[in-house]
Amino acid sequence: MSAGFPPGGLPLDALPTPALLVDRARMEANLAAMAGSIGAAGVALRPHFKTSKCLAVARRQLAHGAIGFTCATPAEVRLLQDAGVEDVLWAHQPVGPAKVAFAVRALARGGLTIALDSLEVAVPLSDAAASSGVTVPFVLEVDTGLHRAGVDPDRAVETAGALCALPALEMRGVLTHEGHLAAHGPDRPGLEAAGDLAGRTLAQVAEALRAAGHECSLVSVGSTPGATSAPFAAGVTEARPGTYVYFDANQVGLGSAGIDQCAQTVLTRVTSAQRPGTVIIDAGIKAMSSDSVATAGSLGVVCDAEGGPLDGVEFAGGNEEHGYLTGPGTAGLRVGDLLRVVPNHACGTTNMWSELYFADGGRAVERHPIRARY
Ligand SMILES: Cc1ncc(COP(=O)(O)O)c(C=O)c1O
User: Fold this and answer.
1) Atom of ligand 1 nearest to the CA of 225
2) Which of 152, 170, 173, 344 lies at a C-alpha separation of 20 to 30 Å from 111?
3) CATH of domain 259-369
């Protein structure tokens, strides 16, 4: 817990606003539910650390059985390695001299696996690792529909062959991020079918790689909307959801969670009410992530101070430190009122903040740093 925070905590009303809250009971319920369902699928749980960037949250995930973490950035990898986490998957290609040098140092500490998808990425890494006497355990990133990074499934065997011919590289398996599931929006059956297909496609790629003589013990899928489908495909060995720890308005829109499961909120106050039909709050675009896949035209779901959604109040826009709430429900709001907003995207919102408060009932009970931000 941060130094200087009073033992026993503070009532929410005493916090400076805006502030980032994590409802501890909701977070614990999310962690237990995901650990239970991924455990029932018979696969390992390796949450993505980008959602919290907070070691206090990561420790709770480990306590719920996470085998380690997924990272996107060097700073996330370093933070977890410094904290003693022994199994880290860096699911982003290390490109450029600074990232390659970091990767070699991080690999030398042990327990790190890196995602690769091309010779262009792999050759400088292999050269640098070989000259330092370090091996590079890697997973081949496969594109199962997002069309971001990753080889097409039918190019996996050829690419793996080329990568495994490099001096320092040792293949461990395959990875996909089924982020394309969000394109199904509220069509949950369509989303589930696409998640199942992503899992089955990756498992088939793993089979083909094994048939070609490659080691492929790790078959890793990962996303929150896909966590009810992709990990259940036969042959998948691990799941990497990230957002599930908090959920968010996007995930509610995709049917991954209900609004009452959203653990991350921005605590804010009404600061001005000069025009009928609009009130201003002290949370603007520097407090929220506007990234919306399922929440067009809104910066988040506005709730009362207890976390219950307010009818007829929309978070219609923002300047840097001002938010615009509109709609008939704003007639009941007064300057000074305390509100909570469920962000569209929890991970992007996390990156805006230096610290978070665990909230329990109406009190902030712990304060923790958020690190490894840009
Ligand atoms: C490689 C990778 N794995 C896992 C995840 C976690 O997905 P989600 O945010 O849907 O939980 C992400 C999210 O961006 C990702 O990029």
Assistant:
1) 10
2) 152
3) 2.40.37.20
